[in-house]
């Protein structure tokens, strides 16, 4: 599916992200919010790669209420 979107969209390959890790990203945001005692809706964070054990957290993507955790 991702391949088809990439081919039809005209985007470069690094601009197309598959959605298989959406569930992992949602769980990650929930766990971060719980640990940091903030509302999960205020947390932005993403997991990439394949769904499951091989998912990787993109730590630079994490922000709480728009503020990066790296700042």
Automatic annotation (TrEMBL):
It holds the Pfam family Ldh_1_C. InterPro entries: L-lactate/malate_DH, Lactate/malate_DH_C, Lactate_DH/Glyco_Ohase_4_C. It comes from the Eukaryota. SUPFAM superfamilies: LDH C-terminal domain-like. This is L-lactate dehydrogenase A-like. GO terms for molecular function: L-lactate dehydrogenase (NAD+) activity. Residues 21-69 form the Lactate/malate dehydrogenase C-terminal domain. Gene3D superfamilies: Lactate dehydrogenase/glycoside hydrolase, family 4, C-terminal. One of its GO terms (biological process) is lactate metabolic process.
